[in-house]
Structures are given as structure tokens and as C-alpha cells.
Task: structure prediction
Amino acid sequence: MFAIKRELKLNNKERSLMRGIAGFKRFVYNYALSIITASWDFEDIQAGDNKRLDAIKKVLTQVTMKKPEYAWMKKYPSTVYQSAFRDLKKAFSRWREGVAEFPAKKSKKKGDSFTVYKTSGIYPEKGQPALPFTNRVVIHPGKTIQLPGLKIFRLKERIDFICSSQTFTVSRTADRWFVSFAINAQHNPPIYHPCEQVGLDLGVKCLATVSDGTCYAMPHTTKEAKTKLRKLQWRNRNKVLGNKKLGIVVSKNAKKYYIKLARDYALICNIRRDTIQKMTTDLSRRVYCIRIEDLNVAGMIANHKLASAISDNCFYEVRRQLIDKQEHYGTKVEIVDRWFPSSKMCSKCGHIQAMKLSDRVFFCQKCNQTLDRDENAAINLKNAPSKKVRSARS
Result:
């Protein structure tokens, strides 16, 4: 499976349509969430979350949507509210398993998104099975895309090949709209990597240091973008985006400011994402076995002096992408035990000594080896004993 994401080229009318559909899904999600939580007060109802949501779905379609004040819901595809119920079921399932927190209500301040998909197939004759891909949308090469239940939209970047998909997710970042979909495709991973095994040490001063001497750094444009963001926030620190309870109308300057603010946040996010994607791809292409340390990121962020630098370097995202790219590039990611003294141990003689975080050079008191602190840790991760190493899949 491969995912494709393209930016939509919309006019004002199409933007209003996208915001309306996203608002429709947000309304249905919050509507179902409020009713199911209220139903828990009635102890005589014996039903699980899925059965309760199915009953709420019938109430929405057979009662609520038939009221005159909710006639606007019929303008949008039915798959929108169906996907809202599907997402809510998944959210409750993750909460019951202890993987995520209790589902919270959707807010337009946290971005807009919705999902549409093609549900019905075309049958050639009565009693005959459906033709292949009849329940999927065929996407032709070019700068246009047909969303099921909606119209044809323009793309800013062309699609160079013919493909098909069933589910399309439209999302908004700042004032830009994107569509993403998955296609069925097979990829044969490479069987040869120039390097057999390396250790990867994630740090604060440098994004990542490899045991072979390679160093990856976060570009200085991240710091420049954050400085620009801080100045923008300081100059507009008293700006208010309206208040319905107090009857304060949103000003045009406030709307412009919050759009610019969202753009600056998206720029910082894109710089980080681009840097980490390139780093993990380069490692996966040239190294077969990658060893990384099991870091306690939550505990490290608790230190307010390091929280900003650690957040910029995205330790967890680096680990997640390396694990996700194993099948695509034929690599193997291994996790070294959290308590393995990679930073305190000499990579030459194995002597362990105390090290401060401010000490950036490792000087062994036994064999007098002098080496960069992060490079020494990366070599130790590479040579870690097998009993201290586990597979990232487990």
C-alpha cells in the first residue's frame, strides 16, 4: 500500500464547500459523542459502544435529518457522516484498550478534515458478480481528481500514472487543502545495502550521529522560522478572534493574523518533516541493520532547559519512520535497552565513567581515548551485546 497526498487548487466557492463538509462531519461526531455519553446514565440499557452508536446513527438519519432546521445536511454526501461514526467507534475502541484517552469533541480551531468513499459497485448483469474495481474511483493522469459524491477538483501537482482508490481523506493545514488516498501496489525491497550495521545516537546538539562518522543536523531555518513566529505572536499578543458569548465580532485583521500564524506553524512542521524524511530514507537505503536507543522522551522533555531542543529533533518520529520503512527498504531496526550505558562507556576499552550532559567530548580515564560524545555512544550502540538488544517489531 502506498499513500499519495496532493494539494487541491480551490476557488472561494470550493473552499466554502470544503469547510461546510468538514463542519458537517464535526457536527455529527460531536452529536454522537454527546448522546452516547448521556446514554450511560441509564443503567437499564445493556449495550456496547458499537450497538449504541448504531442506534444513534438511526436516530440521526430517521429523526434528526428530517427536521426542517437540519435540512442542510442533505446537501452533503452520506459517506461523510458514516465516516464520522466509524471514526468515533475506533476512538472508543482505542480508549477501551487503554491506547488513547477518552474521545474529545472536535473543534474547528484544530483543523478541518473529512473522508468520502465509494460504496456501491456496478454489476454488468443481474445475478453476475461485480466487475473488479467497480467500487473504486479510477484516477487518470493529470491535474484533476474526482472525489466520490462530489465534483471534479483541480490539483496543484499532477498525478503521473493511472491508479484507483476507494477512500479519500480531505484535510486542511492553515489555509491549504489536501487530498490523500492509498493505492494497492507492490514494492520489491533491495537485497543489498552498502553498510551492514550501524548505531544511531539521537542528540540535542546534533539531530543524529551514526557510528560510521555521518552526522545529520536540523537546518538553521528551523530556528529562523521560530524566531519569526515569536515576533509575530508578540506584536499581536492582544489580538482576539471574536467571542460568541460576549458578542464580539471577528475583525478582518484578526482573521488575517490567525491565517498567517497557522502558515508559520505549518512551515516549521514542514521543515522538520522534510529533514527527518530525508535522513531516515538515506539511512534505510544504505544500511541493513540500524540500532537505536530506547529513549525516555517524556522524561527528557520534563527538563525545561532541553524540552525545546528535544521537541525540534523529534526523537519519536525518527524511530517511527525507521520502523515503518523496514519493509519498503528491506532493513532491520533494533532497539537497545534503555539502561545500557552507551554515553558513559568507552567504545575502545569498555571502561564506564560518569559523564555530565555538558561534556561534549568523551575522554577515557583508562585508555586515554578522546572522541566526540555522540560518536562514542553510536559506536557503543552498534557493538551492544545481543542480550541488551531487541527487535523493533516486538
